[in-house]
Design goal:
By secondary structure, the chain is an alpha+beta fold. 35% of the residues lie in helices and 13% in strands. The chain has 16 helices and 14 strands. A hairpin with a 5-residue loop joins strand 1 and strand 2. The longest helix is centred in the N-terminal third of the chain and has 20 residues.
Length: 536
């Protein structure tokens, strides 16, 4: 839990970063906007936020799960925490900060080092590891003597539902099949455990690798002294998902925690005194969690930067850069840390990821629709950006080198380029970062007002379209995406912070936002309601 002290003034302090910290003049507090409390969208947001919060059930709420095994804290409770922070910022009512602090206490109790669990490296850190649908899963095949012989790894999606079946075929040969609900089947025959055999199992699996099934294998050497032909023990083997602390989830969780500390420092009356007394430990927890991903940081040309998975990390895209929304989840935390600590490295890294986003903003002509001018012409340039960073491996794709040792990914020897535009759900993070970074004084300048106008124009020019007499959002920002789902319509709230850059935004957001959002409620629904309340 957050460190508790008997009596402390409403101030916070950070533990010094490791090494010699480079400091910059502390940025001024973020500018508070005086907004009308009685606007229609504000009232809609307040009602939606409280309705969702009172209607959350199961793992979604009202409390916090005791672990992040299924990613519910990283992609559920974190949204709720952000929602309470937005409500506290908007209203100044300490009740919101008090409830946020309660959620933070539950989240901190679920860290790996508190629970006594370790990740795939054997590290029990100040983070929230996950397993299951987010990570690769491995079946450990035995030989007839009961010794480990072959490790077969399956990448998501639905990796945990996979089963690996091996059957003998005589003379030391065997077949291998990977099946599972919702998965394309994978099978190979005539395999051997002999490392000198031309049908050596791991190499045959490597040569047969298919992007859809994403199956790889590693031959486990025989014990010293083993003799004769080594054969597999036939049967069906379950897979075990790897445990990994994902940087995106760390960013999602720590962002509202750092925001609470910043709120207490800049608007002390909005945070109860008993919460002030515990925030030093909160800030330290944020710093330690972010540092836990230091090994994943990578600099990119042009002053850009991002987080990436190592080639041997047991995740679906080992060796590749995180999707843009995922590394921006960490960047948002770094913006708050730059303000709170004055550490230049935090500001520089936030700026590097801002440059990565800006470098991917591609200007295209406005689309006809909600962005039409009165004479039917185009409403001006809009900005389109991809889901995966344009400089990255997934966006550009890769081919096998012919050997796992030479590949950039241990679990995917090949992958076709993925150049799809960002979808309107993950854009929740992109747009929040864009708005947060631009409105935080003291950071290195990256985005211009023209950038924000172009992104705001994307909403009316590319995202919304008319369905009969109603307006709805498309699936993505590309301008030709399929219709968005009913649930995605609630995510229209993501665009409301850009209202000052596009006068059509409030009217269209109000027309599209469903009240209430579709059931069952999720943590992101709390956040979307709070967004409307905060920025309307």
């Amino acid at each position: 839990m957050c460190a508790t002290q008997p009596s402390a003034p409403p101030t916070t302090a950070a533990s010094p970063p490791r090494g010699r910290a480079r400091t910059r003049p502390a940025p001024r507090p973020w500018p508070g906007r005086v907004l009308p409390f009685r606007s229609r969208l504000h009232r809609t947001g307040v009602r939606s936020f409280h309705r969702v919060e009172s209607g959350l059930t199961g793992v979604s709420g009202p409390g916090v799960p005791g672990d992040n095994e299924a990613g519910v804290i990283g992609w559920g409770a974190s949204w709720r925490m952000q929602g309470y922070l937005l409500m506290a910022e908007r209203t100044g009512d300490p009740a919101y900060a008090r409830r946020l602090a309660e959620l933070v206490d539950g989240v901190l109790a679920a860290r790996d080092e508190v629970r006594g669990v370790a990740d795939h490296r054997g590290v029990s850190g100040p983070v929230w590891s996950t397993a299951g649908k987010f990570t690769a899963a491995t079946a450990r095949i035995e030989d007839t003597d009961g010794n480990p012989a072959l490790e077969v790894t399956v990448c998501p999606p639905r990796a945990v539902q996979a089963e690996v079946t091996v059957e003998p075929q005589g003379e030391g040969r065997f077949s291998l099949a990977v099946t599972g609900q919702g998965r394309a089947p994978f099978s190979v025959e005539g395999l051997a455990l002999d490392p000198h055999d031309e049908r050596r199992a791991d190499r045959v699996v490597y040569a047969a690798h298919d992007q859809r099934t994403a199956v790889t294998a590693r031959l486990v050497p025989a014990p010293d002294g083993a003799a004769g032909i080594r054969e597999v023990r036939p049967g069906t083997y379950p897979v075990e998902p790897a445990r990994v602390a994902l940087a995106a989830q760390t960013g999602m969780i720590t962002y509202p925690m750092a925001g609470l500390v910043r709120l207490a420092r800049e608007r002390p009356a909005a945070v109860p005194r008993e919460v002030h007394a515990r925030l030093e430990g909160c800030l330290d927890a944020v710093l330690r969690a972010v540092r836990a991903h230091e090994y994943q940081w990578t600099a990119v040309s042009g002053g850009r930067g991002c987080y990436r998975w190592l080639r041997e990390e047991p995740v679906s895209f080992a060796g590749a850069e995180l999707p843009t929304n995922e590394f921006l989840a960490v960047a948002r935390t770094l913006v708050h840390l730059a303000v709170l600590t004055g550490d230049e490295e935090h500001a520089e890294r936030a700026a590097a990821m801002a440059r990565a986003l800006r470098g991917d903003l591609r200007r295209v002509g406005g689309a006809r629709g909600a962005g039409e001018t009165g004479d039917g012409g185009l409403a001006g340039d809009v900005a389109v950006w991809p889901y995966w960073p344009g400089f990255g491996r997934v966006y550009n794709g890769w081919s096998p080198t012919g050997s796992p040792e030479g590949d950039g990914s241990l679990y995917r020897p090949l992958y076709a380029p993925v150049t799809v535009p960002e979808d309107v759900t993950h854009a929740l993070i992109d747009l929040d970062f864009l708005h947060l970074y631009h409105r935080t004084p003291g950071l290195p300048p990256v985005f211009t007002r023209d950038d924000l106008r172009a992104v705001a124009a994307t909403f009316t020019g590319h995202v919304v379209e008319r369905h009969g007499r109603a307006w709805r959002m498309r699936h993505d920002v590309g301008g030709a995406g399929r219709p968005g789902t009913d649930r995605q319509q609630a995510h229209v709230a993501a665009w409301i912070p850009l209202r000052e850059h596009n006068p059509r935004l409030p009217v269209l957001v109000s027309a599209i936002h469903p009240s209430p959002p579709p059931a069952p409620y999720q943590g992101v629904d709390s956040y979307c309601g709070a967004l409307l309340a905060r920025w309307s």
